[in-house]
Write a structure and sequence with these properties.
Layout: E1 5-8, H1 14-25, E2 29-34, H2 40-49, E3 58-62, H3 71-75, E4 80-83, H4 97-116, E5 121-125, E6 141-142, H5 157-176, E7 181-187, E8 189-191, H6 203-211, E9 221-222, E10 224-226, H7 227-239, E11 247-250, E12 257-258, H8 259-270, H9 284-293, H10 298-302, E13 309-310, H11 313-319, H12 326-339
Parallel strand pairs: 1-2, 1-4, 2-3, 4-5, 5-7, 6-13, 7-11, 8-10
Antiparallel strand pairs: 9-12
Helix pairs in contact: 1-7, 4-5, 6-8, 6-12, 8-12
Protein name: Nucleoside-diphosphate-sugar epimerase
Keywords: Oxidoreductase
Domain NAD-dependent epimerase/dehydratase: 6-248
Length: 345
């Protein structure tokens, strides 16, 4: 147990929230950033509902990725930083710089502030979008050595924001970081227990399935990881001796799961609560046609029928990660949303 202080950026976020709970459980003092301190009481209530321990060791500071103000105060006295905050994954982005610029520039703001404050290590949340997208249908097991091409098939504005932000972070570390170290975490599709009422990331697949909001499933396969394992990887990466200067893919280690299989799991496990889950498949030709007119279908069309394989060997070896299965993550996601009435009755 330690009383060392850790800064977690974006405290209202899904991954950040689970990181904060894990840090508090392990005895750290935690400071987190929010864009407005008016949300502190609301966010504390979410953490308390999720079983937060040692809430008195959690403090808040106002800081925005698009502004310089507040970051020096945020990092003051912190030994480590988990930079989790990032622009939300938005569909139909008219100007992709609305996503890319704050992700890249916000990352550099955090890194500069961390360096100036003498922070030992920054753990940056990147994404599988920076690793395993845009390569085409290659017969390959993706590892941390892979980088997604900016203009590859299926790489959208969110993907480019993650690629450019992580590359900018590594360039900063090489040129300007001084003694501050960097580790990056690249999770695949993140599912698991929802905190509060916000549903984000791959949990939306589960929510939309339970709500019957999809007419059917495309022939799409999703590599899944549980959010609790993503949080565990972040916390381990702060202090693991071999983690400095490394990227880590965080995944269950299983092959990507078919979306129609996610639906089958929900129908089997949740009975009447899953009565709206679709059983139909959407023909590939329909998805490809939709991709001609709607940008959000382009990443799906690019990967139709492609089962991505992802190695988690490095995270197991250097971070001691023992991840849950995709099945556990899917069930935990659905359980939490049903319990919170975040799906249709």
């Amino acid at each position: 147990m330690t009383r060392e202080r850790v800064l977690v950026t974006g405290g209202s976020g899904f991954i950040a929230g689970h990181c904060i709970l894990r840090l508090l459980e392990r005895g750290y003092d935690v400071r987190t950033t929010v864009r407005s301190l008016r949300r502190e009481a609301e966010i504390r209530a979410v953490f308390e509902e999720a079983g937060m321990r040692r809430g008195d060791a959690l403090s808040f500071v106002e800081a925005d990725l698009t502004k310089d103000g507040g970051w020096a105060e945020a990092v003051e006295g912190a030994g480590h930083v988990l930079h989790v905050a990032s622009p939300v994954h938005t569909e139909n982005v008219k100007d992709e710089n609305e996503v890319i610029t704050p992700a890249r520039e916000g990352t550099l703001r955090v890194l500069r502030a961390a360096r100036d404050a003498g922070v030992r290590r920054v753990v940056l949340t990147s994404a599988f979008h920076a690793v395993g997208f845009g390569h085409g249908r290659i017969d390959h097991v993706f590892t941390e050595d892979d980088w997604s091409p900016l203009g590859g098939p299926g790489v959208d504005a969110y993907g480019r924001s993650k690629i450019l932000a992580e590359r900018a972070a590594w360039e900063f570390i090489r040129a300007e970081a001084g003694r501050t170290e960097l580790t990056t975490i690249c999770p695949v599709a993140v599912m698991g227990p929802v905190m509060g009422t916000a549903v984000s990331g791959a949990n939306r697949i589960v929510q939309r399935s339970l709500n019957g909001d999809m007419p059917g499933y495309p022939d799409m396969y999703v590599p899944v990881v549980d959010v609790r394992d993503v949080a565990a990887a972040h916390v381990a990466a702060m202090t693991a001796p071999g983690a400095a200067g490394q990227r880590f893919l965080v995944a269950s280690g299983e092959d990507a799961i078919a979306m129609k299989e996610i639906g089958a799991i929900l129908r089997e496990r949740f009975g009447d609560a899953a009565k709206r889950v679709p059983t139909r498949s959407i023909p590939n030709v329909v998805v490809r046609l939709a991709a001609l007119f709607k940008a959000e279908f382009k990443p799906v069309a690019a990967d139709l029928g492609y089962v991505k394989r992802v190695s988690n060997e490095k995270a197991r070896r250097l971070l001691g990660l023992r991840p849950r299965t995709s099945l556990e993550a899917i069930i935990a996601s659905a359980d939490s949303m049903i319990a919170k009435s975040l799906v249709k009755a």
